[in-house]
């Protein structure tokens, strides 16, 4: 009887924590200023997937993820957060993150900004937004992979505090380029948010 009671209490705590995380991952649509320019920020919806794929194709050539993969990720609203940035109803960039409560780790799954809008702070803004959410739900670290050849992105990530942890050999689909696995210690940021 006592074991049932303990299990009931534990399950209740876990459900409250899941609900709390879901609330933190909620995002209200908003107009945001990035380096003095106004953009529209929203949580990605399934209807955004065709434009997300277009941005990904512009940035990476081939789309590493297909429509089905993005749809599945966007629908997982309890442990995923995908953001889109628009201007004049045109999708300019997006970023996605998964939140693993077991490992207490956030992982940036995707980020891309159309080439004509790169270097204007959109990517940095999206990453900062995901970092803030990860800190609020008490994640210990955030990780991401970046192509070894993508030195511009590596510079941005390093400026934001990410450190190279290791190399993932032949990581990328298609050309099998190596990836740097980069990690940000969020415990350092928890008192500063």
From TrEMBL:
NCBIfam families recorded: rimI
Residues annotated as domain N-acetyltransferase: 39-187
Any one Pfam family match given in the protein's UniProt record, by short name: Acetyltransf_1
UniProt protein name: Ribosomal-protein-alanine acetyltransferase
CDD domains associated with the record: NAT_SF
Domain of life: Bacteria
Segments crossing the lipid bilayer: none
């Amino acid at each position: 009887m006592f074991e049932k009671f303990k299990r009931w209490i534990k399950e209740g705590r876990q459900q409250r924590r899941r609900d709390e995380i879901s609330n933190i991952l909620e995002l209200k649509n908003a107009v945001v200023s990035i380096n003095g320019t106004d953009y529209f920020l929203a949580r990605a919806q399934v209807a955004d997937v065709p434009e997300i794929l277009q941005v990904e194709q512009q940035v990476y050539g081939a789309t590493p993820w297909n429509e089905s993969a993005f749809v599945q990720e966007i629908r997982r609203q309890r442990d995923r957060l995908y953001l889109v940035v628009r201007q004049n109803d045109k999708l300019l960039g997006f970023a996605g993150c998964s939140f693993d409560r077991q490992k207490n780790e956030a992982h940036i799954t995707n980020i891309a900004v159309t080439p004509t809008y790169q270097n204007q702070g959109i990517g940095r803004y999206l990453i900062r937004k995901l970092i803030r959410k990860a800190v609020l739900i008490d994640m210990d670290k955030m990780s991401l992979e970046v192509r070894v050849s993508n030195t511009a992105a590596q510079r941005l990530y390093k400026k934001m505090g990410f450190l190279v942890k290791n190399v993932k050999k032949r990581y990328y689909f298609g050309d099998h380029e190596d990836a740097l696995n980069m990690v940000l210690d969020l415990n350092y940021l928890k008192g500063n948010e």
